[in-house]
Amino acid sequence: MQGNRGSHNNHGPSRPGEQRKPGGTNTNGEQPEHCEGSSINEALTLDLQSFRKPGEKTFTQRSRLFVGNLPPGITEDELEKLFAKYGKANEIFINKDRGFGFIRLETRIIAEIARAELDDTPFRGRPIRVRFATHGAALSVKNLPEFVSNELLEEAFAAFGQIERAVVIVDDRGRPTGKGVVEFTSKPAARKALDKCGDGSYLLTAFPRPITVEPMDQFDEDEGLPEKLINKNQQYHKEREQPPRFAQPGSFEYEYAMRWKALMEMEKQQFEMVDRNMKEAQEKLEAEMEAARHEHQVMLMRQDLLRRQEELRRMEELHSQEVQKRKQAELRQEEERRRREEEMRMRSEEMMKRQQEGFRGNFPENREQDMRMHMGAMAMNRNSLGATSGAAGAAGLSAESTALMPGSGNNNNMPGGGQGGFPRGLPGTGDYGPNKQRRF
User: Fold this and answer.
1) Between the N and C ends of the chain, which has fewer C-beta atoms within 10 Å?
2) Model confidence over 108-120: pLDDT tens digits?
3) Which residue ranges does the record assign to the RRM domain (predicted)?
4) Residue 311, exposed/middle/buried by CB under 10 A (0-12, 13-18, 19+)?
5) DSSP H/E element including 147
6) CA 321 – CA 342 distance, rounded (Å)
7) CA 143 to centroid of chain Cα atoms
8) How far from chain centre, in Å, is Cα 31?
């Protein structure tokens, strides 16, 4: 803040009310409207672009100022004109009954400049008070893990609403303190985050360590409590009867000062003991959590193994069912093939039977042809035996041939039927040679 004040002195005095132009001031403490030179806001100009950071969010709650001890009857236009030097305001509110108001400027740095220059400045005979307004949508986050950054904190809480600022608090060495601040643009978003995260179940990292979210306590660490703001009542005058001093040993004050010191030492020891017990409990919890995490991973691996075994068993069942279906299909195909073969065999047998029946129906005609051929063969055999057989043999052969020739009787179609014939299968002994076989 001191650096900001020093850098802004180049633009003019830090108190606009302390400037004196020729012609003096009016009864209300304001500069006259028509005076030599320009007005205060015209004389003191700021290059607002030089106070804007790249990518900085504008008109946030952090750039909202509280203006107190305002004169009665002040209007919003007059308050805006008072802050016109610091750029256009986004929000202006005035409570005329209680004499205070709020104004929101573009950036935090500009608001700091306005607060430093206008605080305790006379305005219509009254020194106005300029302070930063409390942030109603700010939350305090505790128990943050070690590897949580500003970006991760903002990403984690962006699920509840739009965020103006998210900061992880670090110590003077840059080490995280486990605390952080999250500022939303609206109070409903902050209440939603507080309701959701208040049960301690919101985790930011893989380490199962829940964070603690609480409404942020607003402190004024810049101005503190000036002497002029203390209520100077009877108790104040009683306490201020003596200035600051050291208690003398052996005195009443020294005795009770030592007793207060002992009480504070005991309080310090109790806090240290509680901190030590809490640290031991945290270490024990972390060890138990690590063992439980290992056991949980083993359980998950077992469940995954059982699931894979169940899937393998189902796949084997499906495979066996598929194989059984294929076997049944093959059996059906084999039965169908056998049935077709049986039908073809029966058809072939039936056809052969029909052919045999047809052959038997034509047997007499075939028998007559066979007999003729047989008789011709016998004649040739007899001729080959020589002419010694004589006329009797020729006459007998002629008679036999005549008997075998078809006659005019009704029994010509019967094998062996008719007069002069011989039964079937009973030829004469002289008709065949010793090597001849019987022919049917």
Assistant:
1) C
2) 889 999 999 998 8
3) 63-135, 137-218
4) exposed
5) none
6) 31
7) 27
8) 65
Please choose, from the candidates 166, 161, 133, the residue with its C-alpha nearest in 3D space to the C-alpha of residue 149. Answer: 166
Question: What DSSP letter does each residue of 109-148 carry, written as one string?
Answer: HHHHHHHHHHTTEEETTEEEEEEEPP-TTEEEEES--TT-
Tokens 């804007």: give the residue: 52
Sorted by sequence, the CB contacts under 8 Å of residue 154 that are 6+ apart come out as 163, 166, 182
Please give the helix or strand (H or E) that residue 138 lies within, else none.
Answer: strand 138-142
Q: For the chain, first and last CA: distance in Å?
A: 145
CA triple 373-374-377, angle to 5 deg: 90
- Separation of alpha carbons 23 and 29, rounded Å: 12
- Specify the pTM: 0.53
Q: Is residue 103 within 8 Å of 89, Cβ to Cβ? A: yes
Tokens of 211: 């964070």
pLDDT digits over 348-404, tens only? 998 888 888 876 655 555 666 667 777 777 767 666 555 444 444 444 444 444 444
Report CA-CA distances (Å) from 148 to 98, 159, 165, 207, 213. 44, 17, 15, 11, 15
- Of the two residues 85 and 222, the one the predictor is more confident about is 85
The Cα 382–Cα 86 span in angstroms is 159
By the 10 Å C-beta count (0-12 exposed, 13-18 middle, 19+ buried), 328 is classed as exposed
Q: How far apart are CA 64 and CA 242, in angstroms?
A: 41
Please state, in angstroms and rounded to a whole number, the distance separating the CA atoms of residues 98 and 91.
19
> For residue 44, which phi and psi values (nearest 5 degrees)?
-105, 110
Contact assessment for residue 70 and residue 100, using Cβ atoms and an 8 Å cutoff: yes
Angle between helices 252-361 and 363-385 (to 10 degrees): 60
Each residue's pLDDT tens digit, 46-84:
666 677 777 778 888 888 999 999 998 889 999 999 999
CB 166 within 8 A of CB 153: yes
Angle formed at CA 298 by CA 294 and CA 303, multiple of 5 degrees:
145
Q: Which residues pair with 183 in a beta bridge?
A: 138, 165
Q: Which pair of tokens denotes residue 223?
A: 């101005």
**Confidence at 406, pLDDT banded by 50, 70, 90:** very low
* Inter-residue contact 106 to 88 (CB < 8 Å): yes
Measured distance CA(368)–CA(364) in Å, rounded: 6
Look at residue 192 in the predicted model and tell me its pLDDT: 92
CA 430 from centre of chain: 115
Q: Give pairs for 295-303: CB < 8 Å, separation 24+.
A: none
Q: Which amino acid is at 407?
A: G
Length of the chain: 440
| C-alpha to C-alpha distance for 110 and 219, rounded to whole angstroms | 20
